[in-house]
Amino acid sequence: MVTDKKSGSPGEDNDNENEEQNKNAHPLTEETPTILIQKTLRSGQSIRYPGNVVVMGDVNPGAEITAGGNVVVMGSLRGVVHAGATGSIDALVTAFRLQPTQLRIADQITRAPDGGAQLPDQPEIAKIKNGRVVIERYLPGEKQKV
């Protein structure tokens, strides 16, 4: 569900609806439901979904994604992202440019370093390894180790 925090539209964010979504959350499997968002998320907009979230566009600063599963952004990720919100430490976050203001997988949180870090020149993937969030280059065609 995409909501605009400033106006509450389209569709108001409803706590009862979020509770219902959480009850229906699935473990990360090939059967995990996936939602496709075909637009850029702007400041004040948020997505909450119990499965995987794929965004074909950017996630601007001030926008938020909360997913029970994986998050894939086919653009720049500069907002707040929480993958594995239902506790899945196997969740992944992938983006062409991974520059979130805050990145969370399950209960592990990280943020971008202070100062001007060099922009990535390849897609990146964030995952939990040894109890910490790590960010690595995404290498297409190679099996990504979790």
Given helix and strand content, the structural type is: mainly beta
- Most strands sheet: 6 strands, mixed
Question: Mean pLDDT, nearest integer?
Answer: 83
Spatial gap, N to C terminus: 28 Å
Query: Helix and strand succession?
Result: EHEEEEEEEEEEE
Strand order of the largest sheet: 1-3-5-7-9-10
The unreliable regions are 9-26
Rough outline: globular
Radius of gyration: 15 Å
Percent of residues in helices comes to under 10%
Number of helices: 1
Q: How big a fraction of the residues is strand? A: 35-45%
How many E strands?
Answer: 12
Subunit structure: Interacts with MinD and FtsZ.
Region (Disordered): 1-33
InterPro entries: CAP/MinC_C, MinC, MinC_C_sf, Septum_form_inhib_MinC_C
Domain Septum formation inhibitor MinC C-terminal: 37-136
How would you portray this structure in words?
This is Septum site-determining protein MinC. It holds the Pfam family MinC_C. It comes from Metallumcola ferriviriculae. Keywords: Cell cycle, Cell division, Septation. Interacts with MinD and FtsZ. By secondary structure, the chain is mainly beta. Helix content is about 5%, strand content about 40%. It has one helix and twelve strands. The chain has one helix at about 15-25, and strands at about 1-5, 35, 45-50, 50-55, 65, 70-75, 80-85, 95-100, 100-105, 110, 125-130, 130-135. Strands 1-3-5-7-9-10 form a six-stranded mixed sheet, covered by helices on one side. The protein has a six-stranded mixed sheet with strand order 2-4-6-8-11-12, with no helix packed on it. A hairpin with a 2-residue loop joins strand 9 (about 100-105) and strand 10. Mean pLDDT is about 85; it is low at about 10-25.
